């Protein structure tokens, strides 16, 4: 399994994963949100075309502390999952 590391990329950042994702593959992200009122960030793992295989949106706003997960296909965005940080 090859390891690909990118440090301090410009934002927004786009990058192709060589040979796609295989069973057992991992994507490890480490970072911080920008200062400001939004207090959120998002990561999209895109498929072919406009498909978003996985949308991860951690939200750190006051009283929200939620991670939102979703995906988008030709039919549009699907029902999002929300997981609160207790």
From TrEMBL:
Entry keywords, A to Z: Lectin
PROSITE patterns found in the cross-reference section: GALECTIN
Pfam families (UniProt xref): Gal-bind_lectin
Residue ranges of domain Galectin in the record: 13-86
GO MF annotation: an example: carbohydrate binding
SUPFAM superfamilies the record matches: Concanavalin A-like lectins/glucanases
Source species, domain of life: Eukaryota
InterPro entries: ConA-like_dom_sf, Galectin_CRD
Annotated protein name in UniProt: Galectin
